[in-house]
């Protein structure tokens, strides 16, 4: 849901995003992530916007990710290959406050390879800029360390003064979703008019997309669980047939193994001559 909201705001209000990040209002158009693909990429989190002579790459993150530095280098190389004459600006924007040192990483370095990118931690930003631009209002609730309830009230007042109804509905809906990171739902409901958000066509589309992605993730997770359970059942049957009933502690240890280790265990069983061999195998490092 957060990914969908951020992506929609960045693509719909790109000139506001440009004013904030680049210091000037530039008309940007969307670039399809597939245009950079040599091999599959995480297109769900990738936001690419282009203008004459410029490619803007944004990554909104709700949590720290150790793979970010390499990913930024990877996307820079893909972007430069596709748009060799464009200057590439990259920003990782962390939405949720964390004490992880990973959110301070702003470069990839490996031997002689060095690549630098911009990093923005919203909770450290001054709120003023976010209240200047309509497209930035939903992010304002994540900015700074002050009274979030009072801040949301100020944002709601700004939203109420938006003339265009559809824009007002959409910005209100996006604010509602992002505010969920820092405020209780009952407080948000008291301040923002939920009926206006629910009438927003854009909000409903974002909700549907979020549900579909959630369903896909759920199906994928269910598939993994089912595969693991199938492997576990076969392995325990083989071990029981070979050695009889296993001690409960071994049963528990096997059940905690991940799929790759279970697959290795299924092959190793053929070489086991006793339960002791099984214990030795389990004690080995991956």
* Classification by helices and strands: alpha/beta
Tally of helical runs: 13
Strand content: 5-15%
Number of strands: 7
| Helix content class | 40-55%
Q: Biggest sheet, open or closed, and with what strands and sense?
A: 5 strands, mixed
The total number of structural domains is 2
In whole angstroms, how far apart are the ends?
36 Å
Topology pattern, helix = H, strand = E: HHEEEHEEEEHHHHHHHHHH
The rough form would be described as elongated
- Main sheet: strand order: 1-2-3-4-7
Radius of gyration: 25 Å
**Low-pLDDT ranges:** none
Average pLDDT value?
83
Structural summary, described in words:
It comes from Pseudanabaena yagii GIHE-NHR1. InterPro entries: DUF4351 (IPR025587), RpnA (IPR010106). By secondary structure, this protein is α/β, with parallel strands linked by helices. It folds into 2 domains: 2-204, no CATH class; 222-283, no CATH class. It is 54% helix and 12% strand. It has 13 helices and 7 strands. It has helices at 2-12, 14-22, 68-82, 128-132, 137-140, 148-160, 165-179, 185-191, 194-198, 201-243, 248-255, 259-268, 275-283; strands at residues 29-30, 47-51, 54-61, 87-94, 107-110, 113-116, 118-121. Strands 1-2-3-4-7 form a 5-stranded mixed sheet, sandwiched between helices. It has a two-stranded antiparallel ribbon with strand order 5-6. The chain starts with a helix and ends with a helix. The relative contact order is 0.08.
């Amino acid at each position: 849901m957060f990914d969908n909201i951020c992506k929609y705001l960045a693509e719909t209000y790109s000139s506001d995003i440009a004013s904030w990040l680049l210091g000037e209002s530039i008309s940007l158009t969307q670039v399809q992530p597939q245009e950079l693909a040599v091999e599959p990429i995480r297109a769900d989190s990738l936001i690419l916007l282009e203008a004459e002579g410029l490619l803007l790459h944004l990554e909104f993150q709700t949590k720290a990710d150790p793979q970010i530095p390499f990913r930024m280098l990877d996307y820079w190389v893909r972007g430069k290959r596709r748009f060799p004459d464009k200057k590439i600006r990259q920003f990782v924007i962390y939405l949720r406050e964390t004490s992880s040192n990973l959110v301070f990483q702003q470069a990839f370095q490996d031997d002689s390879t060095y690549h630098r990118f911009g990093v923005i931690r919203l909770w450290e930003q001054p709120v003023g800029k976010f209240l200047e631009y309509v497209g930035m209002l939903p992010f304002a609730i994540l900015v700074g360390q002050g009274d979030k309830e009072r801040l949301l009230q100020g944002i709601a007042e700004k939203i109420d003064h938006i003339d265009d109804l559809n824009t007002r509905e959409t910005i209100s809906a996006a604010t509602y979703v992002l505010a969920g990171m820092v405020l209780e739902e009952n407080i948000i409901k008291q301040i923002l008019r939920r009926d206006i958000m629910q009438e927003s066509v854009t909000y409903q589309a974002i909700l549907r997309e979020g549900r579909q992605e959630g369903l896909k993730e759920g199906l994928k997770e269910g598939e993994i669980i089912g595969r693991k359970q199938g492997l576990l059942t076969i392995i325990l049957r083989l071990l029981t047939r070979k050695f009889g009933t296993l001690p409960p502690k071994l049963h528990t240890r096997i059940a905690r193994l991940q799929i790759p280790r279970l697959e290795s265990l299924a092959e190793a069983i053929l070489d086991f001559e006793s339960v002791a061999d099984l214990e030795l195998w389990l004690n080995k490092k991956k």
